Amino acid sequence: MKGPLAKEPLQIAFYGKGGIGKSTVSSNVAAALAEMGKKVMQVGCDPKADCTRNLRGDRDIPTILDVMREKGGDKLELTEMGKGKSIDLDEVVFSGFKGVLCVEAGGPEPAVGCAGRGIKVAVELLRRLGVYKSGLDVVIYDVLGDVVCGGFGMPLRQGLADDVFVVTSADYLAIYAANNICKGIQRHAGRGGSALGGIIYNVRGSLDNLELVEEFASSIGSRVTGSIPSDPIITESELYGQTVIEYAPNSQAAERFRILARSILESGETVVPKPLSRENLAVMAQKIREETRRKAGIPVVA
Length: 302
Description:
This protein is α/β, with parallel strands linked by helices. It has a single domain, classed as P-loop containing nucleotide triphosphate hydrolases (Rossmann fold, 3-Layer(aba) Sandwich), CATH 3.40.50. The protein is built from 11 helices and 8 strands. The chain is globular. The model is unreliable at 1-6 (pLDDT under 50).
């Protein structure tokens, strides 16, 4: 973590396969950090613009790209701000649980432009508005990670995040996506890009096998920073548009998110991952299939 005299906050990016629970993890980590007294900003980098809803009681907020379009159309650029088209802070930054600052980058109109552009535009605008110099302790980016796109890879490529955490389950497609994300980290880390802070295990689907995820993390030269077990209270809290930290603060699930948040803050080690080869990924896939069969009571053929 950066020192107390640093002008910039600690910046964290969460990546992972779509639907793997990045927003659940990131919003609960944000809530846990805010509960600890940290000044936190969460930036949603998914065009669906739903990354901050659980921090704001299931209420949508205008996205930065939407506000820019309203000010001057799709061609409006940041250089035009200040010519009667300026954007005020309260138009794009909103307060959530325990004062967490909530921002949604947004995306282009359907079938038009690059969906990853919103991340670059959002960061540039927030810097111009002075948000990064406002005493923030932590900035969290919730990034769509299973789309291999230069725009979504911007935080990796430009070294925006101090630490990148990849969220995965024990499902093969989730690990496949995590491995691809690690390829992107490896590609850019040697040129000033972000490094891998760790793997976060979020149980999804029928297979719950921490050992498989730990094996994957170890194979790429990293570790499992934290694990979030399946718990109905997580789903229940999201039905009410809240984080578990807010909805059920005394629950075991809430405590797991607090442990994860502390682990992320205390994690000073990052690595350049060594993604699995096609052959090793196939071996991992076979192990996952065998474990899935065992759990289902289907005989495993040697």
